[in-house]
Amino acid sequence: MSSTMFDQIANKFKVVDDIMEHQPDSNKVALVFGASGEQGRAVLDGLLLHAHYGKIYGVSRNITNAEKLLAEHKQQEHIKGRVHLIEADLAKEESVEKVLMETKAESIFLVTTTDMPPHSKSCKVGEMAEYESIKKFFDTLVKVYNKDKISRHVLFSTADNVERINSMYEKPPIQPLEDGSVVANYSGKGRGAEYAMDLLADINDLKLTLITLPFLHSNFLGAAAPVPNETQTEWTINACLGENAIDMFSTSDLAYLVPAILEKPNEYDKQNLRISAEKITMGEAASYFASLFGKDIIYNPLTFDEMAAMPNLPSAGCMAQLGQYIADPRSAHHIALTEKVMFPRKPQLFKDWLLTHSDACALTNVGLNLDPAPITTVCVFGSTGMEGESVVKGLLKDTRKSYQIRAITSDIDSPKVKELKALDPDRVTIVKANLDDEGSLSKALEGAQGVFLVTDFFNFYHTGKTGFDYRKDVMGEVDEKGEAETDMEELHAKNIIDACEAAKTIKHIVFCTMEDINEMNKELDLGLADSDVGRFDAKARAAAYARKKKLSCTYVLMPMYSEHFFGLLAPEKRIDEETGRESIELAVPMKEDEPLMCMSIDDLGKAVANIFDSYQAVAGHEIGLVTDFVTVTEVAEMITEVFFQEKTNDNKVKGRCVEKRDVTVDEWVEARGTHTKDLGAMFGYFSKTDAVRKRRSVAKTLELCPDAKPFRQWLEANKNNVQFREKLGLR
């Protein structure tokens, strides 16, 4: 297909370049084989949103089908001129060679399919055809390399060569089918991967990484979907997977996994990464179905013969073999390895995957219809803080429904509480709760469907506590070694989480949390000094606790608030003692070229309202909110242009300038007092822009909250803000 045709197809997809997470490198090219399949589409999402590629080519045997599927794909708005669809056939050497030569792609994702009966004469025939196409691909790869000498990294989504593994036993645990095949849809891929490993072993410029996926969650929309009885009063999941826990994974997480691997070709070269998000039994999976849909759904563990005899399934014998192999503990995968590769993203768990796919046609077609209970009553913890106030306002402004809001507080007589109540006395109820008292929390949550959870690290400052000692007052009791036994902020968050789990009416929690900076530092080798970053770490540990609960939860990470540039980070008026010159200086402990993530706190409320409106779509997701990455120099320039400069009649610009003043973290902390010590470590982390971008997404933020304003627009919208102008010495 010509490049002109590539462009004609790609131009049908629309996206705005400035919402991409990274500035694309026009010299970096990626190639995705199997672009129209489930895995290929997930990888395209990941390469577009979480990688730096200037061009991405999607390859499919049927370009018409690929174009249709991509157009229907939920992320298609992100596919613009950076994605080019190519029609090519892995089974044809000249087709593969042309694609490799013309695209010059250095990063390649490869996934293949097994043509099983009735699309092939037998399972063995399908296996052999798949193996030959994989073999031909890698042979062609070497051939092309010998011509163009371009270094390439291939990530091959493969499977185990079960036929070879089975033959190693004196008494093979899996009996071959009549055609001699053993788990044909695995063994062909596995043989191909073994061939590729041997072929590329001594070619340093051709990197190869294998990922071996386990039982995919999407199988519950196919062969493992619940089947109803005639009256649709009971559903059974019929599978030959035994009673033991098996490894599972969500295909959508390839969007994070694949870019992470392709970023480090040397680290993962010639490795087989056995991927898994969790181990659960099919009985547990059935119980999640039953709990979500409120139906009688059970697991029916089939024997091999029962599975092999299933009607209307031409490859039933192969599926029975596959069940035997997956249920065998010797097929185990590695959860810890997966978490390390995906870090800092967390793999999606089945309970969250099921809620996000509860409206899938495969389920509605068998009578499993879930009309998610609408959330109309929301408890807002931390209601008097910046985040809580924004959420209360965001819910009140939502025109889709009339939320009843419970503003949870420990001090019902505070001025801030009265201000919240005054926003809408009919819809805002002030509820007193003790975060140390389970009964108090249960009463506050009674009858509510939604919860916004944020804990306030600076609560001690807000209450005017004197003689503050971080280790004693925030970290709880200190033992004789001087080590903290409990973290009160973490404990309070866990108490709320436990109360939500006990309250049967809670449908969804939006947890405003943060990263564990020490964990990020260790796993990503950021080179930061170890330190306690209380306002981050306690929230991160509480979020990890929530993930283990049977709760529907969305985790929202907040950036630096734009409002801080008129508060904690506000420009200051300085007078030179020698010259008497007056200047306005912005001193933030960030280097000139280090972008700082920011978003207005006002936009949090809108985002949370949108989450509660469609909570089933984001269950289990972590959403790092950010509308802009701006340097301190850019901030100074924008404040100058918006607040201080104006054009004269002769079109000249006049006015004062906000100047950037270099300051170290230690100098900045010393000037502001002891309570900002952990903020010094925070700025050290913020300076690691690549690490920060791994957790926060402008594109996802604007998808969730289209009206969220970039920093410049936010400044212009607040040009007449009296409080901000007073901070700048303006009237």
TrEMBL record:
<dbReference type="Pfam" id="PF05368">
    <property type="entry name" value="NmrA"/>
</dbReference>
<comment type="similarity">
    <text>Belongs to the NmrA-type oxidoreductase family.</text>
</comment>
<dbReference type="InterPro" id="IPR051164">
    <property type="entry name" value="NmrA-like_oxidored"/>
</dbReference>
<protein>
    <recommendedName>
        <fullName>NmrA-like domain-containing protein</fullName>
    </recommendedName>
</protein>
<dbReference type="GO" id="GO:0005634">
    <property type="term" value="C:nucleus"/>
</dbReference>
<feature type="domain" description="NmrA-like">
    <location>
        <begin position="377"/>
        <end position="654"/>
    </location>
</feature>
<keyword id="KW-0521">NADP</keyword>
<dbReference type="InterPro" id="IPR008030">
    <property type="entry name" value="NmrA-like"/>
</dbReference>
<dbReference type="InterPro" id="IPR036291">
    <property type="entry name" value="NAD(P)-bd_dom_sf"/>
</dbReference>
